[in-house]
Amino acid sequence: MRGLDQTDKQIVHLLENDATKSSASLAKVLSLSQATVRRRIRKLVKNGVIRITAIVDPGKAGFYLVTCIALNVDPDKINLVLESLRHNKDVRWVAVASGRFNIIMLCRFSSTEEFHLFIQDDLSKLQGLENIETYICLRLEKGRYM
Question: Where would you tag: which of 63, 112, 113, 141 has the fewest CB atoms within 10 A of its CB?
Answer without folding.
Answer: 141
